[in-house]
UniProtKB/TrEMBL annotation:
This is L,D-transpeptidase. It holds the Pfam family YkuD. The active site is at 155 (proton donor/acceptor), 171 (nucleophile). Belongs to the YkuD family.
Amino acid sequence: MRPLSLSLFLAATTLLAGCTFKGVPDPEVSSKDSEWMALVPSAQEDRRYGRYMMDDPTGEAPGTVVVDTKERFLYYVMPGKKVIRYGVAVGDEAYGWTGTARVARKAEWPNWNPPAEMKARWPHVKFTQGGPENPLGARALYLFDGNKDTLYRIHGTNEPEKIGLAVSSGCIRMRNIDVVDLYNRVDVNAKVIVR
């Protein structure tokens, strides 16, 4: 190894030594989940956006969901100053949303009824029954500001190849297996912070 390459390797190794990433096993899923998730086109997984337990970079209370739109990560805060970090797709610049909300509702394989402003932009979008072709994927967490629906969701996707990108109309998209894992952990009324 050349001296410069060796120096870079040693520096990277030293930096990574302080990071504690631990993979999180897939959640148990129903036979319907398995069947429907198998029908969603698969994508080459980018390991940067995998599901990992790590030290908490958020400083928020356990049970809180924090979305870092710049880095494309969602953090679920655990006790003991740990988080589970998931890769996400976020809203593109024109449609991005930031703020604080709460999870008012949770749904498995939800129906999708696009909001009026989305239908105005894209007349081809229409109501879609829950299932593998539905853009909301396997699960959805409905975000409310008080008692008012923000129309933003944290949800699965039928386009897993877009995880890590800014492509949505403001919603937070996750791989279906990741949104099932998050859905199983998050309580109704959990605080959600989108930065």
